[in-house]
Amino acid sequence: MSVDPAHARDVERCAAVAAGLMKKAGATVKVARTRGFPVVLGAFRAGPRHPTVTIYNHLDVVPAGGADWSRPPFKMAIAGDRFYARGATDDKGPALTALFAARSARELRVPLNIRFLWECEEEIGSPSFEAFLCKTAKSIPTDSVLVSDTIWVARNKPAVSAGLRGLVGVLLALETGEKDCHSGLTGGAARNPLAELAQVVARCVDGRTGRVTIPGFYDGVLPLAREELASFRESGFSLAAFKKAHGLKKLRSGSALSAMKAIWGAPTFEVHGFSGGYQGPGVKTAVPPRGEAKVSMRLVPGQEPRKVLHLLKEHVRRLNPDVRVSGALSLEPFRGVTSGPFAQAAAEAMRFAFGKSPAVVREGGSIGAVVTMEKVLKCPVCLIGLSLPEHGYHGPNEFFDWRQASGGMLAFVKYFEQISRIR
Amino acid sequence: MSVDPAHARDVERCAAVAAGLMKKAGATVKVARTRGFPVVLGAFRAGPRHPTVTIYNHLDVVPAGGADWSRPPFKMAIAGDRFYARGATDDKGPALTALFAARSARELRVPLNIRFLWECEEEIGSPSFEAFLCKTAKSIPTDSVLVSDTIWVARNKPAVSAGLRGLVGVLLALETGEKDCHSGLTGGAARNPLAELAQVVARCVDGRTGRVTIPGFYDGVLPLAREELASFRESGFSLAAFKKAHGLKKLRSGSALSAMKAIWGAPTFEVHGFSGGYQGPGVKTAVPPRGEAKVSMRLVPGQEPRKVLHLLKEHVRRLNPDVRVSGALSLEPFRGVTSGPFAQAAAEAMRFAFGKSPAVVREGGSIGAVVTMEKVLKCPVCLIGLSLPEHGYHGPNEFFDWRQASGGMLAFVKYFEQISRIR
Questions:
Q1: What is the pLDDT of residues B230-253, one digit of tens each?
Q2: Which of residues 206-235 of A touch B (CB under 8 A)?
Q3: Which residues of chain A have pLDDT under 70?
Q4: Residue B396 and residue A263: Cβ atoms within 8 Å?
Q5: C-alpha angle with apex B189: B188 to B191, nearest 5 degrees?
Q6: Interface of A with B in 116-135 (CB under 8 A)
Q7: Hey, how many other C-beta atoms are within 10 angstroms of the C-beta on B78?
Q8: Within a domain: residue A157?
Q9: Is the Cβ pair B287, A279 closer than 8 Å?
Q10: What is the CATH number of the domain that holds B149?
Q11: Reported pTM
């Protein structure tokens, strides 16, 4: 996993293994250095007269707390048509699907140059990717980018994503003392960093409704268009399936449409953890010397991470000037193309492989590299995902399955054939 | 430590070692079973015609997170006149001081029966003590109780305590899902248990000022009397020393008197920890399935734990009916005697041993057994402490020192001699 320095060598090893697979498939390969983790570059060359597509995937994963897993998360297990492992669906399964589809396209002599760009820092917000891409862009010209790191809404209705949420991840840290204090001896006079952080958090978001209360936060948010809402309704989204897939007991949203609007079209403020203080059994009545709230905000098109971070910092400074705000992650939201030849090719490919036209939806997650590639490579970026909600992105017992892998190979070969004709 | 079930056998071992020391000092000893951890009972008998004092101390300690300690916390180290170890000043040092004073009193033929009652569950709120004492009271009749588990305000001014705060410790738990969820895929629709708990906490207490906002919370609180405030002013309390002793950077209170009023005369609501969610390095952007806030309230005379717990439960139910409130600790506040022969004997003993009259202050901490002993043994309970603020109750690098130990022995022998004349 890329977030934990203890696993840095595992990420490097993963890049080397991935390069080996690419080479075995017949592609030319290079493990390129960045300021952070490497990028695996590969290519099947058809010739300079033909167009080029670049396929982006990422190899890194989020941590996997072992307790909720039925199997060791870092050892792949095959059960029926399922491939279980951390990273199976996010994003190694789709990466290999695209690799094998590209090999088939080559065998079928599809007149298209196919490049691979496999990143290893997606889960930590791609900190080195932009600098790397700016430096490398000239040597890897491309006419479009295909990203397969998004999720269908339901198994029986393919989906393509025309938008991503951005992300601003932040640590709110407060230190009021040097050591644990006895709450009897000092309580009342001593400050309580966790109580103060809870207060700051509670003034940034209404925990019950999710409404963000940072002044100016919603400024510029682009409302969802009527056609988008119509496509959302046809996406196959079901509240029951959503709750089941994510193991959620109750939702903030009462209807399917309001849930889709909340996860695809609205920004959020989430608390991921409070560190500091006692977390063992029972209650230890000490006043902790420091605390940290790990929070993040998902942003939608029309919001700018830098501006939102500034608004948060100003708000926190007014609430509690001793709280230190450090920005850890920053990703811009993305508004993709919904018409034109690439959108048509994606729709045709999905219909060919899975028998149904895809719904045009949005993605609640963030892929920092998407915005970067659109800017730096100056070409359309199409999000054609293969993952399903039940695959469990970032959750325990993550898996990918053969139906999505085999259908995905068909879809990608068809897509390559279609876009090879776009001039 | 009594709070962590993993150390249950260590608590038992400690009781056995303590009984051995008592026996070696010449006392009769019995390790008495309770529903929880044992109580060590001992006695030096002077005869039925003479009065009896019972000395209460506790042997259990709070956990010691190793990171902030300069030495292993569970191995005693002597450096200069200091005895370092978890429990050195809370409460094993004062316990041994009283034991050795009692042995001297016996050698000096002070006509007083001296009993020992050493508990092993003080730090978890004495859950078995009341039942044990009710059952045992008849066999251990006494005319007064001496408790040495309180703290002077400053090294150069002895203090006796005429009040203790009570305590209600509570876990606020909320479960909204079964597993970690991807905050991109579910954020906005999924509930966030930590954000909801932060909101509940922020509506129970103003984290900045410490003002508790649970309706009815302050009802019945007895205001501090003018004489008490006058004695507080003479206690030697200094804001600078208080901050230094507890390693506090800034306080909520701006003046010494307002700090004393806050820690001795006012109730609190503290957050001790939030469990659930991610606590490792960086930000993991998952929405956790559950969270728990570990909180407690210190209470002052006039407040009743049961009533306060009820107020909290009602308040939380109105704020967020899904939050489960479970009461873990409950201790009544204590208002001690400030006049009469026992108070006079204590003042005289302190003057004799340390050269100065003691200030009559209060204690911000809670000792559940004190209220229980007053009720069940039906006699005055005097709090004559020996610990100093810099000893670090419940903090890292806790210690006791020889000046307090040797002065304490003198004071206790003098006290025994004085109270042997009270009929």
A1: 999 999 999 999 999 889 999 998
A2: 206-208, 210
A3: 66
A4: no
A5: 90
A6: 124
A7: 11
A8: yes
A9: no
A10: 3.40.630.10
A11: 0.82
